[in-house]
Design brief:
single chain, mainly alpha, 2 helices
């Protein structure tokens, strides 16, 4: 998976996770809140992975 697709997938997971958390908050569903938080964390990690790939690519391109 490329850096752009990591960042896109990460953003999608982050937003979906936030939505799940909001639904969980609104309905007082702790399980949904937890699923949302986990998905949001996954999205953050995917975005960080994409950023790291970009950084490595930039270093290699300059060499």
């Amino acid at each position: 998976m490329g850096s752009t697709s990591d960042k896109i997938s990460g953003k999608a997971n982050e937003l979906t996770g936030k939505a799940k958390e909001a639904v969980g908050d609104a309905t007082d569903d702790r399980r949904m809140q937890a699923k949302g938080a986990a998905q949001e964390a996954k999205g953050d990690a995917q975005q960080a992975k994409g950023e790291a790939k970009d950084a490595v690519k930039n270093v290699v391109d300059k060499a």
